[in-house]
Amino acid sequence: MKLLLVGGGAREHALAWKLSGEQAVRELVCGPGNAGIAGLARCVPLDVADPEAILAVAEREQVDFTVVGPELPLANGVADVFAAAGRPLFGPRKAAARLESSKVYAKRFMARHGIPTARFRVCDTADAALAAVAGEAFGFPVVVKADGLAAGKGVTVAPDRATAEAAVRAAMVDGRFGAAGSSVVIEECLAGEEASFFVLCDGRSGLALPSAQDHKRAFDGDRGPNTGGMGAFAPSPLVSRALADRVMAEVVQPTLDGLRADGAEYRGVLYVGLMLTRDGPQVIEFNVRFGDPEAQVVLPMIETDLAPILFAAATGDLGTAAWRTAGDPHVGVVMASGGYPGKYETGHEIDGLAAAEAVPGVVVFHAGSRLQDGRILTSGGRVLTVVGRGGTFGEARERAYRAAACISFPDKHVRTDIGMKAIAGGG
Ligand code: AMP
Ligand code: GLY
């Protein structure tokens, strides 16, 4: 088949890397892609926020199947536009994408369907939210979440009342997230370890992929501001087979059944952000796409061809689809521009990519990079994800960091402790 991949981050590079060599994939087009993806697919300009523009590319290129990486096109209804045009696409419809695009919807959905999640209150005005904080219904720390998509910046884990109030004011008075902050969720802060769980869904049933763990904070030791993700590893030593079965039974199946009952059948990948608490797994968030940087470590673990499985999910019949893995640990280290997630410079030349890729068991995925006059320049906050695989987490980590050390650009920022948790956890 001829396939269109939508997006241009390291997650999409990992998807392109996995899909491009597969038997079923005759040709791969990517919009907009990036400098790394350009080595695997023909890249075309594309505004991913615009579902009609995505359909126009699919029609012009006569593609057989479209796979969507990021959430924005899904929240904007690209799956509905493709369904109306009779073109298969991997990713949920707009109504189901609200699981990610509206935290108010997601929390109410979970409450309605008995899916384990933190206790919460929805507030539609700043006064109501400030009163909820002052009432200390959930004690401190407390979590304040802007309702809509806020580029990963809409959540504050507030240690005290003043911080919680400031978060409410930023969202609801200062309008820091625009319309995305016109409602907030105030919720109980859960304690435990976090894991990311990915499930390919065909509307009725789901096929779980290897689990992963993300490192969201900017600095070593999980300190500093939240980012899109500074590194990840897979599989998560915290997610045993028994726990995965429990999450499928207690979270995923009720979610698929509930969405179907609500007339919003879910086809695509469901990302379940879990907090593994003393009382069992609880849902912190749903996303309607693969995680980034988790995809960069999860997809290389899968030895089976993925395109037929994504197509089966998208067309509503996973049947007996299954995947194989050798189970080798993977560690992915994000190389970011200095200053990220705040202000940073771009346009710096990236050196040493070939030397990094020559390290055994290593693959380098591009995010914020672009080609100019034969040189590869930085073009974003998260620039690369360097992934190492090994027989142990220690070996995977050593390879990823050895490769990352080969790569240079001015003011690069890399956490030094990605994957340490997996080693501490018995990897
Ligand atoms: P999100 O943007 O929804 O991924 O949330 C960002 C991060 O905030 C999560 O990865 C958690 O570390 C943290 N978080 C969100 N909700 C809670 C909660 N109820 N309890 C504890 N931490 C939370
Ligand atoms: N790694 C977190 C996310 O993709 O949202």
How would you describe the overall organization of this protein?
The chain is α+β, with helices and mostly antiparallel strands. The protein folds into four domains: 2-93, Rossmann fold, CATH 3.40.50; 119-188, Dna Ligase, domain 1 (2-Layer Sandwich), CATH 3.30.1490.20; 193-314, ATP-grasp fold, B domain (D-amino Acid Aminotransferase, Chain A, domain 1); 330-424, Phosphoribosylglycinamide synthetase, C-terminal domain (Glycinamide Ribonucleotide Synthetase, Chain A, domain 4, Alpha-Beta Complex). The chain has 14 helices and 23 strands. It has helices spanning 10-20, 51-61, 71-75, 78-84, 94-101, 103-112, 126-134, 161-172, 241-261, 294-298, 307-314, 353-357, 393-406, 420-424; strands at residues 2-7, 27-32, 42-43, 65-68, 89-90, 120-123, 142-146, 155-158, 184-188, 193-202, 206-208, 213-214, 217-219, 223-226, 231-234, 267-277, 280-287, 330-337, 362-366, 369-372, 375-378, 382-389, 412-413. Strands 12, 15, 18, 19, 22 and 23 form a six-stranded antiparallel beta sheet that branches. Strands 3-2-1-4-5 form a five-stranded parallel beta sheet, sandwiched between helices. β20 (369-372) and β21 form a beta hairpin. α2 (51-61) crosses α4, α5 packs across α6 (103-112) and α7 (126-134) packs antiparallel against α8. It starts with a strand and ends with a helix. The model has no long low-confidence stretch (mean pLDDT 96). It binds adenosine monophosphate and glycine. The site of adenosine monophosphate has 14 residues, from β8 and β17.
